[in-house]
Amino acid sequence: MTDLLKIGLSALLAQQRALGATSNNIANANTPGYARQRVEFGERAAERIGNGFVGTGVDIVSVRRITDDIAARQLHTAASSFTRSDVFAGLAAGIDNLLAADETGLNITLQNFVNAGQDLADDPAGIPARQVLLSEGRNLVSRFQMFDRRLGEIGNETSTRIRAAVTEINGLGESIATVNQQLLASGVPPGAQLPPDLLDQRDRLLGRLAELVRVETAEQRDGTLSVFIGSGQALVLGTTSSSLMAGPGEFNPAQTDIAIVGSGGAAVTITQFLSGGELGGLLDFRREMLDPARADVGRMAVGLTETFNQIHREGMDLNAQLGGDFFSLSASQVFPSRNNTGAATVSVSVADIALLQPTAYRFNFDGAVFQMFRADDGTPVTLSGSGSVADPYLADGLSIVVNGAAAAGDRFLLDPLSDAPGTMNLLLNDAAQVAAAAPIRSRVAVANVGDATISPGEVADVTDPNLLATTTIAFLDPNTYSINGAGAFAYTSGGDIVVNGSRVQISGTPVAGDQFIIESNAGGVGDNRNALRLSGVLDLGILDGGGTNLQASVGQLISSVGSQTAEVMNQRDAQGLLLQQAEQALDSVRGVNLDEEAANLLRHEQMYQAAAQTISVADTLFQSLLLAVRR
Amino acid sequence: MRVSSNTLRQVFLNALEMAQRQIVETQTQVSTGLRINQPSDDPIDAARIRELEASLSRLDQYQANGVIARNRLSLEEEALVGVVEHLQRVRELAVQGNNATQGLESRRAIAAELGERLDGLLSLANSADSAGRYLFSGFAENTQPFARSGGSVVYNGDQGQRSLQVSDGRFIAVNDPGSELFQRIPNGNGTFALAAAPANTGEGVLGAGTVTDPAAYVADTYTITFLTPANYEVRDSGGGLVVAATYADGDTIGFLGTEIQLDGQPAAGDVFTSTPSTSQDVFTTVQNLITALESGADDTLVQNNVGQTLQDIDQALGRAIEVRTDVGGRLGSLDGEAGLNEGFTVQLTETLSEIRDLDYAEAISRLSQQLVGLEAAQQTFARVQGLSLFRFL
User: SS3 of A320, please?
Assistant: First the structure.
């Protein structure tokens, strides 16, 4: 009898617990990271009766937290990969949109600028066309500056987000360490069921951490979880956590670097080892897309400035002065490492536009020689020269001068291009100073008898001090000429004659006494020869060894940014699907199915009713017995 | 596989989200009318669009340059037509004045009209466009090219010639310097010029000189002296005898690859000279004509002077016609280039539209298909979510 009651009671209690677990599952059906729990029954030890055994009821063996560690780990990996692409794609879309906007298009701004040069060629003597060229020049400068500003803003946003991610990672590390601490404090012996709410919480923290950066985890025997970051640095080790530090970069203070501070207090830079998650996405974006885009725009700005200035200097303005520089720009950014111990200073300048590459460079001193590597892909670059002012190092179109003594291990970052567009300016204010004319002109003496003609003349060397002096080429006989009364040079029809920095060709048959004059083009306000050269600047293959003109270079930037963005967007979509699958895989084990819980509810309710019935039967039996003995 | 309630909902939500994203994309395309809204939509074509737009802008610029070149050349052509008219009239007047029946009075009247023509030529040579830029002063557009100075006309411009770009690699010159048009014109027949000495007493009138053998001609001043009316000798500048021959009325005098026509009977001691051609500006030529007609010298000398000046006028006229023809040719080239540019523009615009613009029919049908998908997803979601065992408890 008591046995019957005891058995019924055990069943009642067990089903109550089961109903409780089911209700808890239903209650937490939408709780993120919740792993469903199942009550597991076990029969009580049987009693020996005679030569048989009879059961004594049911016990709750455990409340099992149902999850799958491998699926959870896969989910974390998928989350790291997806967030990385998602963040990268979001930022890439910023640059993509920048290039998409019509009003910011570099192609059309460049074209408008050279069109203004053509308008100038149409009416070089007029002031209005000159003013239009200046204002189009200003537009072009502000377009380059705008690019610099917007890319700079994107860079700042990246840095801000890196710092925010680092702060959150530190918080998560601490929380995981705290959970580890609580797990230890719960006093559960090793190998036993750990408190499920703490495990759920730790899973949630880990899930969020994986969204921020890729981590490796290892569960210890005592149930604590250690988390490793970068190339194996411990973020959480048992109950202690290290902190990450986002600070000014080793070279460029604006380029945030990430270091990990261990228990010893020494900071180790781990920027280059971090991957995956938001942090990985931000760092990858900066390295793979933002920096190259800035260097590329910088290279265009440098190419345009140097080439246009060169042509402009070879012209003459309305005041009969040689043209000055049209644009100004500085392409000389060098960052020494803050760990340098030597006294060397390095300066860099552009030597040959055609050889420039859209990248920054590492410039390291190994104690004996300097070595140079591309910053984007690490390719070594061969240096020629000795680094002195007279004989600078030359590499990839850059001229590098080292002053002072470097110590072994000293490192520099040469980044001449990235900031160049931001430093670009229009130097000319006065429309009359636009050098539309060539500085020299030629003429045939009126009295000439022969039919020889002279070419209009071009500048061979604008620095020649006698460029604007009048030069007379007089023929002594049909095959010999003198220059300014001196010498006797053999004449070849159509051959180059270079004198006082000018180059002319005389062709035809001159007669003794014929004279040809090269003189300053002062007053030649209607001359548009230099304006035509200026407006042809976009047709010149000035980049990539002379194979790429500026328009094509802009096109390359657009298509490379576009395809990078498209690629990372595709990656994001693919990894989004993988993430969904990983979520579903884990959820299929861990998630609550309400229909299943409804069925369980019914099952346990029925069991409870049946158990209650057992007690009722026991009661009836007992009552029968009492009735039987009643007097 | 076991499916959790959350998964069930999430899967539907993902499907809805995807459908909505596609609809937004299509909607953006439809509302902008563009197939490519970001470089990432089609990286290669996005770059091409920008380059095509730049090319179109460049073609527009060429067309604008072409219009300016046309205006400049039309102005020049107009001026040249005037120059040719004046020179033809000058030539007529010279022929008229050369007639032996003319008296001094009528020659003076002719000279007066020539003076008017000279002023007309000078004014044409100083033509300017609407902005006051001189057409014939070379690069020195702000400098008046021709000015009178002590009885002659001097050129103050230079020999510059400006070209405008009218298509890729094609440049058209839009001016001709006055030095070439008016100033550097060889006198005589272009190789040598003839003159009769003012002191001649005979009636020999020089005709045209011709070069029959250019290789045999040596440039020098040759003096033809009649020793008797029937005998002459030709000596070079050094006094060396070139040829000595007999002469009868109407004979040609020939030496060193040249032939000189002489009419009438020269007297003994009459001298004629042949000098190598030099540059002579058109104003000097007309002025010489006026001087000859006003001189009141004897008829033979007037006829000699006027007759030889006629040759100079022909040279100037030839030059003016040559330049005018050249300008006409350049105007023709402009037409050709404008046509080509227009063709290119049409072609590029078509290509641009093909790459950039949206195929509306395709996009609309895509949109309605996507909408159907969205609706279906929404409906199944509502129905599946409505199914729950709890409803039956």
Answer: coil
The model's confidence at residue A138, banded by pLDDT at 50, 70 and 90, is very high
Helix (H) or strand (E) holding B195: strand B192-196
- pLDDT score of A103 more than 70: no
Is residue A2 pLDDT above 70, yes or no? no
Residues 6+ apart with CB under 8 A from A79: A207, A210, A211, A277, A579, A582
Among A312, A369, A304, residue whose Cα is nearest residue A331: A304
Q: What are phi and psi of A523, to 5 degrees?
A: 85, -10
| Contact indicator for A526, B140 with CB cutoff of 8 Å | yes
Among A115, A525, A592, the residue with its CB nearest the CB of B61 is A115
Q: How far is B64 from chain A (nearest CA, A)?
A: 8
Q: Taking the CA atoms of chain B, what radius of gyration do you get in angstroms?
A: 41
Helix axes A550-590, B43-98, angle to 10 degrees: 160
- Interface predicted TM-score (ipTM) of this complex, two decimals: 0.84
**Residue A33: predicted pLDDT:** 85
Neighbours of A341 (CB within 10 A): 10
Task: Say if residues A62 and A42 touch (Cβ distance below 8 Å).
Answer: no
Identify the residue among B5, B40, B278 best suited for mutation to test binding to A, counting A beta carbons within 10 A and taking the highest: B40
Average pLDDT over residues A596-622: 91
DSSP one-letter code for A333 = -
pLDDT for position A249: 85
Q: Kindly state the average pLDDT of the residues B282-297.
A: 91
Beta-bridge partners for A236? A227, A241
Q: CB–CB of B94/B289 below 8 Å? A: yes
Q: Which H helix or E strand runs over A412? A: strand A411-414
What rounded mean pLDDT belongs to chain B?
A: 91
- Shortest distance between the Cα of B26 and any Cα of chain A, in A, equals 17
Element (DSSP H or E) covering residue A374 = strand A370-374
3-state class (DSSP) for residue A468: coil
Q: Closest Cα to residue B229, out of B264, B273, B266?
A: B266
CB contact under 8 A, A598 and B57: no
End-to-end CA distance of chain A: 22
Q: Count of CB atoms within 10 A of residue A533's CB?
A: 23
Relative orientation angle of helices A69-100 and A550-590, to the nearest 10 degrees = 150
Mean pLDDT of A399-426: 92
Q: Give the chain A residue nearest B134 (alpha carbons).
A: A526
Q: How many residues does chain A have?
A: 631
Please state which of the ranges A81-90, B139-148, B324-333, B374-383 shows the lowest mean pLDDT: B374-383
What pLDDT digit, counting tens, does each position of A139-193 carry?
A: 999 999 998 999 999 999 999 999 999 999 999 999 999 999 999 888 887 777 8
Contact between chains at A558 and B14 (C-beta distance less than 8 A): no
Of B320, B331, B63, the residue nearest B174 (C-alpha): B331
Comparing CA positions, the residue from B5, B18, B378, B7 lying closest to residue A576 is B18
Quick check: A271 pLDDT over 80? yes
Nearest residue in B to A115, CA atom: B61
- In which element (H, E) is residue A21 found? helix A2-27
Q: Is the dihedral of CA A471, A473, A476, A481 positive or negative?
A: positive
Q: CA–CA separation, A597 vs B9, rounded Å?
A: 17
Distance between first and last Cα of chain B: 25
- Per the confidence metrics, is the pTM higher than 0.90? no
CA B355, chain centre distance (Å) = 39
Give the span between the Cα atoms of A352 and A543, in whole angstroms.
9
Alpha-helical (H) ranges within chain B are 5-32, 43-98, 104-125, 178, 282-294, 299-356, 360-386
Alpha-carbon gap, residue A8 to A159, rounded angstroms = 66
Q: Do B139 and A30 touch (CB under 8 A)?
A: no
